[in-house]
Amino acid sequence: MTETQAYVKPLPQPSLESAAFWQGLREHRLLLQRCARCAKIRHYPRPVCDVCYAMEYDWTEASGRGTVHSWTVSHHAFHPGFKTDLPYTVVTVDLEEGVRMQSRLIGASPDRLHIGLPVEVVFEDVTPELTLALLRIATDSEAG
CA nearest 121: which of 99, 104, 144? Predict the structure, then answer.
């Protein structure tokens, strides 16, 4: 995005629990919450562990690699800022760390997708304060 372009899509509002996640993205690192009591990795960031109900957590850096669990192709913008992206593909990924995340697929047509396809996180700096984690087919899978 150039300096003259305005970012017109909705911006996330980091919470106390998610602030470190968003800061990690700005540093081009995918950070996941980890329960400080039982070590369960969780994503999306939230205040309570769903296994042991502890409120304490820390952060661990994820590999950014995973496999396709499912996807959908959006042909209708839910917000006017997404009209120029249509159609776009949102992928649900099983990360190597054992949690799922969703993001937009870039650089590939959805007809290349299949369940189990290796993908990786890439970072897009959309404003000076905001970086997004997007997904692309893993570079070692380009031939497949």
Answer: 104
